[in-house]
Fold this protein.
Amino acid sequence: APLPLQKLRDSSSETLLSLSWPTRKDEPYRFTDTSYIKSSEIQPITNPPQESDFSSVSEDTHLPNITIIDGYLVETLSGLSGLPEGVYVGSLSKLSSEGILKRLSEFVSNVEGDLFWSLNGVGAPDLIVVYVPEGCRVNAPLNLRYCSVKGSDVGSNTLPVSNPRVLMLVEKGGEVGIVEEFVGGDGNKCYWTNSVLEVIIGEGATFSHSYVQTQSLGAAHIKWTSIRQESASTYKLVEFSSGGKLSRHNLHVQQVGPDTVTELSTLHLSINDQTQDLHSSLILDHPRGYTNQLHKCIVGHPRGQAVFDGNVRVNRYAQQTDAGQLTRSLLLVPQATVNVKPNLQIIADDVKCSHGAAISDLEEDQLFYFQARGIDLETARKALIYSFGAEVIDRIPFAYVREKAKSHIAELLVPTVKSIA
Amino acid sequence: MMAHCSTSSSLNPSNLFSHPTFRTKTLSIPRLCSLSSIRIPQSHCATNRSSLRRLPVVAGAVAVDSQASYTDEKEGKKLLLEVKDLTAVITESQQKILNGVNLTVYEGEVHAIMGKNGSGKSTFSKVLVGHPDYEVTGGTAIFKGQDLLEMDPEERSLSGIFMSFQSPVAIPGVSNADFLNMAYNARQRKLGLPELGPIEFFSHVYSKLDQVNMKMDFLNRNVNEGFSGGERKRNEILQLAVLGADLAILDEIDSGLDVDALQDVARAVNGLLTPNNSVLMITHYQRLLDFIKPAYIHIMENGRIVKTGDISLASFLEKEGYKGITAA
Ligand SMILES: Nc1ncnc2c1ncn2[C@@H]1O[C@H](COP(=O)(O)OP(=O)(O)OP(=O)(O)O)[C@@H](O)[C@H]1O
Ligand SMILES: [Mg+2]
């Protein structure tokens, strides 16, 4: 294996030795039950997908794109035309530039993760690289399609696991947008996607990140996003997750220079018997950072659950930071559960901060206002739920992704609204 | 120095829905769904003091009897709304608010209801449009020959009653244009007419903006969100202009309006008046009545209409106050 991948595997196996399976007694998993994975027989996917697997993967018309099936980059299903000179998107093993290889080696697996992070490091069949050279602006968003093809039936108690891993480096002044889309398996197919994205955003560089997760309702989806922001860089994330039986996003943003901009927006939908979890941590160690986090979730099932633990830490040297954090939850059925823990910790003293948390049902007065204008209750509920989510979806910078997410929400809401209206 | 602001709430079903803080947020579903089932049978023993019309004797006869009433005419005008001995309580506390309201409105008539704060004017109008905060405990309300009290709120609206709220709510996340479009299309569906897509609707609504002197960008803003008091009122009238109504109930459409805005709103309302549709306005001030001239003025007190007169009642009120009325 190429050096960075070997390095990753070595350090991951080493940390794995000291890690055990998280339990409800561990703070990061206090509200999130991972026994769905633990109690299943886990089958690592060790072979690249076959031609016959491709039929279930639809052609993506949005270029440039790469398709990653069960953790393996499939070149025949990818199209990279139109990328500017010097940009590299592809497998580490095919990377010929010594210079880039050297740069990547400096960063690979520098961040501490958890058990799932390390499992991915050991199990990743490849390291998929996105490299944007200095001052380079990539106009069209790059689509990363993660498809899970291998899966077991409900009740079989086996989970094929894939470990896609992407390392991305945006050099000084570079600018790129990425759409990560996780799909796979109609209905209730069972599998485990254990994915890691590691990004270094260089000085003054901009990374716009859209992450859409609509995997099967039998899937376990564990995702790590680790971001390192150098001075004056910008990171904007918009996440929409509605798939999976158990879905957990660990988001870690580390500021390594002043004047950074960080905007995190998430919409989680637990419309079925499922758990959606966001654990985010944003650490500010340098002056004049701007950060804003908006987390929203809708729970519409008696056994549905949403978990949010959002830690923003403004350390001593992060003076003149402007930090905001807001979480809002919408519970559509009485038995629905949310566990939210927004947490803004401020150690610096010259800081502007705002935060809030609200949990509610749809407002009765608002529903009545619709009815008083001749709009039936079902339509009214739908409009209100939809607009609740739209605040996040509207922040997705790419129209086709917005439309996709919106129609997905509309589809999910049809049966729900009917049954509760 | 360390400031630590952190909130942690762990909510499971039982504590969320029993916690006092969330009392007002309990789910509306059961109540709204059972609108018709909570309606207790109408009382048949109502003594009919104020109206000469015959009361239906058995509940089953209501529809038939009232159908006859609708064709009932006064100087060639059809009966539009007939409320008899209407009583209502606050759903949550069962506190009595309406104590037997009687009111008859014919097509093309303009009526005004005046009365002290808290006398039940807004409650009466909200009961007519089916607000779930109130439960009707007796009496009847017939609109265009149909039993209003048996209808869902949206059906009442679609059948031609429009109430502008004294305090319209804001609906963050839903644009004024989308909201109006939804309401307009609901009406079109009901009438069996084609619905309009967003672009067609925009040009339809554009012409109405002038009528209430509203700027285009109001359509793109969220419903009443961040609107000033006066802007909310104008927005209610815009909705009326777009949707139309046989009976417009205007609850204090004049309060909070500056002189220019009052004229705009009054002009818009007058512009909507035809020989066939009626207005029931609630106001505290003579000045609105100078613009929109009512034929009848009713005084409400303690959940009942205690006096009905012509426009002169308003000027009397202006001079003497409510003491004069009650004593009279
Ligand atoms: N939902 C409610 N909950 C509690 N009390 C209510 C409710 N609705 C009405 N009331 C009470 O019923 C009475 C009548 O209220 P209503 O709003 O109908 O008065 P109004 O005549 O419109 O007064 P105003 O002129 O101030 O608008 C008041 O005492 C009011 O506090
Ligand atoms: Mg009132």
